[in-house]
Write a structure and sequence with these properties.
This protein has 387 residues and is of the alpha/beta class. It has 15 helices and eleven strands. Strand 5, helix 6 and strand 6 form a beta-alpha-beta unit. Helix 1 runs antiparallel to helix 11, helix 5 runs parallel beside helix 6 and helix 12 packs across helix 13. Bound molecules: 3-methyl-2-oxobutanoic acid (KIV) and zinc ion. Zinc ion binds next to loops. It is an enzyme of class 2 (transferase).
């Protein structure tokens, strides 16, 4: 089993979400929690982009120990110089530099020939190597590039000293089998690929970021990039908590070992949502408020008999103290009896059929029946019985 490196870019690509701006203090608070969670790499920002970002990366590099601290740059010497300056006090610094490699980006955005792009990429990696030993190269829009050209540029940047090669699906365009095949192609066609770690970087435009990331891991990628709660440009980045729990659930399927403390996932999600002001949808996998709730009678009955019937993950594994049974008009007698017992009403005290009938009448008027409603219901039925 190889180690799966977790690269968190909540503070860089996540902050690129529309409407999010984080100050240095907020970024530091998130970075501290990411270390508690046990991520391997924290991408702290893009130092050349603004004085604020420069200051945040500098502060995180100085204060945060126990993870690689990474800064993003374009394949431009002055960006790389700024990044090196920002990372000067980091215990484990990494410069993440790169350039776009798809025909549309090279022709229309960069206005460079493929040869000029290779030249700029190699020069950027060599320049970054003057400052740090750990240099990651990103091939922007790799999923829409010519695979043979992608293989060639990766070979050249690894030769120049890149230790990690990032294969972004910048616009969230590919499917899991296409992305998996691309990674597999690179493992076979980049001669020196064993000298570098292959990294995934997926966007969620078609809702496939997590699936694409996992397909790439299965095909040989050993680093995954993403954000907490999946925040990021447009439809966001890969949600790291989803990848972590998918790998945690079936490690042998992917052939990798996960080093994070999964019990910190819920706290990390809450912190990122609170600080960024981006709410987590209630149905969001792993960290949504309903992710471990059971509402229908059949499901509630199953879970009460044996959790594994409808639960693939024990909620405590991600730091949620217990699963909740929501009592509603769809709940059965078994769920009601179970909750009443938890509230101190033993079945000998009441007639199940009478209480259940009244419970259903109440539940028809409300979405959810709370404990206070049950106490009131029990008082009412007791009075009625006594009269
Ligand atoms: O989506 C992307 O291609 C990126 C790179 C800059 C790494 O965020
Ligand atoms: Zn991105």
């Amino acid at each position: 089993m190889r180690k799966l490196y977790i690269f968190d870019t909540t503070l860089r690509d996540g902050e690129q979400s529309l409407g999010i701006t984080l100050n240095t203090h907020e970024k530091l608070e998130i970075a501290r929690q990411l270390v508690r969670l046990g991520v391997d790499v924290i991408e702290a920002g893009f130092p050349a982009s603004s004085p604020g970002d420069m200051n945040s990366v500098k502060t995180i590099a100085r204060e945060i120990k126990g993870a690689v601290i990474c800064g993003l740059t374009r394949a431009v010497a002055k960006d790389i110089d700024a990044c090196a300056e920002a990372l000067r006090d980091a215990e484990q610094p990494r410069i993440h530099t790169g350039i776009a490699v798809s025909p549309v980006h090279m022709e229309k955005k960069l206005r460079l020939s493929p040869e000029q792009v290779v030249e700029a990429a190699v020069a950027a990696v060599k320049h970054a190597k003057k400052y740090v030993s750990d240099v990651e190269f990103y091939a922007e829009d790799a999923s829409r590039s010519e695979p043979a050209f992608l293989a060639k540029i990766l070979e050249k940047v690894i030769e120049a000293g890149a230790t990690v090669v990032n294969i972004p699906d910048t616009v969230g365009y590919v499917t899991p089998w296409q992305y998996g095949e691309l990674i597999s192609f690179l493992t076979k066609n980049v001669k020196n690929i064993d000298s570098a770690i292959i990294s995934t970087h997926c966007h969620n435009d078609l809702g496939m970021a997590t699936a694409n990331t996992l397909a790439a891991v299965k095909a040989g990628a050993s680093q995954v990039e993403g954000t907490i709660n999946g925040i990021g440009e447009r439809a966001g980045n890969t949600a790291l908590e989803e990848v972590m729990m998918a790998v945690y659930s079936q490690p042998s399927l992917y052939g990798v070992e996960l080093g994070v403390k999964t019990k910190e996932i819920a706290a990390t999600s809450r912190l990122v949502s609170g600080i960024t002001g981006v709410p987590v949808p209630s149905h969001k996998a792993i960290v949504g408020a309903n992710a471990f709730m059971h509402a229908s009678g059949i499901h509630q009955d199953g879970v009460l008999k044996e959790k594994r019937t409808y639960e693939i993950i024990d909620p405590e594994t991600v730091g949620i103290l217990r699963n909740k049974i929501v009592l509603s008009a769809r709940s059965g007698r078994h769920a009601l009896k179970h909750r009443l017992e938890e509230l101190g009403y033993s079945p000998e005290q009441y007639d199940v059929e009478t209480v259940y009938k009244e419970f259903l009448q109440l539940a028809d008027q409300k979405k959810e029946v709370f404990d206070e409603d049950l106490h009131a219901l029990m008082g009412y039925t007791e009075k009625e019985r006594n009269s």
